[in-house]
Amino acid sequence: MSVRALWFRDGTLFLLDQRELPAKTVVRRLTRVGEVANAIRTMAVRGAPSIGVAAAYGMALAARRGRSTPAAAARLLGATRPTAYDLFVGIDTVKAAWEAGADPLAAADAYRERVVDECHRIGTSGAPLLAKARRVLTHCNAGALATVEWGTALAPIRVARDRGAHLFVWVDETRPLLQGARLTAWELGRERIPHAIIADNAAGHYLARGEVDAVIVGADRIARNGDFANKIGTYEKAVVAHENGVPFYVAAPWSTFDARRPDGRSIPVEERSESEVLRIGGRRLAPERSRARNPAFDVTPARYVTAFVTPNGVVRPPALAKALARAVPS
Ligand code: MRU
Questions:
Q1: 248-301, pLDDT tens digit by residue?
Q2: Which residue out of 92, 172, 200, 220 is catalytically annotated?
Q3: Ligand 1 atom closest to 296 (CA)
Q4: What is the dihedral of CA 310, 315, 317, 323, to 10 degrees?
Q5: Whose CA is nearest to atom 10 of ligand 1?
Q6: What is the pLDDT of residues 153-176, one digit of tens each?
Q7: Which CATH number is 132's domain given?
Q8: Host domain of residue 26
Q9: Helix or strand or coil: residue 142?
Q10: Is residue 1 part of a domain?
Q11: Is the pTM higher than 0.90?
Q12: Tell me, what CATH number does 16's domain have?
């Protein structure tokens, strides 16, 4: 059964609250831009493409209410999560329409359709890469929840399965917020795709034993040279995959590619509250006086990427700048 992370109807943005999954299915109804900003900041909606679409609708809600300017609404939404480039593409797309006197809601709808279509195409372009793989490892959640529909990393897995591949998925649990154990496992379970959740620190063990044929992840921002930011822990998986000769694929729509950033050094990395590390499921496990650090993302150098899976096909890192110039003219 397919999943939809969010939808817009009768002046309301409906969101599946991802903090509650898989225990409860809770749908939030948002009618103000401030509520959308809050949902993004607190990760009721998460995953770079979904964040971008939610922000696009946040802009449309602000325009409809008439109490904000395009610049003020863009500032409010843009201050929520700094790493996901899609956030800024979603905001800027609707801001431009609003400023030009076009219909902001139509612009948000068109943006959503573009993201969904690109993720579907990622599925078809990436599926052949997995045709011979039996065991695929993924990190965080890069499924429909993170992209409105289809997914990025999960889209080729879905399409390969639909074409008859018998894939098994290793699901990194993804501490501290457990997007793998809670969300990826939930999505795969609904589609009856065989999988096992592993502790984040178990991935190297299976990679070294030859029990992983390919790694595929999503991204939050990809620089022009192919360095990319994704959920914390991705860098380690890429290095260990490289060390063991396992192909490492990064799947993303064009809204994740930041053509103006030459490399990964200047990608902003979000640091979230230490309580996400100190507590699990609301319960504090660490000693009362211990402090924690909580970077939400890390940056993986392009040299560890075997290929990018884009809506327009598979691109090897040396060819990325050219492919980007064709797909996203700056
Ligand atoms: O902090 P999150 O859960 O929003 O982080 C999400 C990720 O890192 C995903 O891997 C990324 O957004 C790609 S989603 C298609």
A1: 999 999 999 999 999 999 999 999 999 999 999 889 999 999 999 999 999 999
A2: 220
A3: 1
A4: -80
A5: 218
A6: 999 999 999 999 999 999 999 999
A7: 3.40.50.10470
A8: 6-118
A9: coil
A10: no
A11: yes
A12: 1.20.120.420
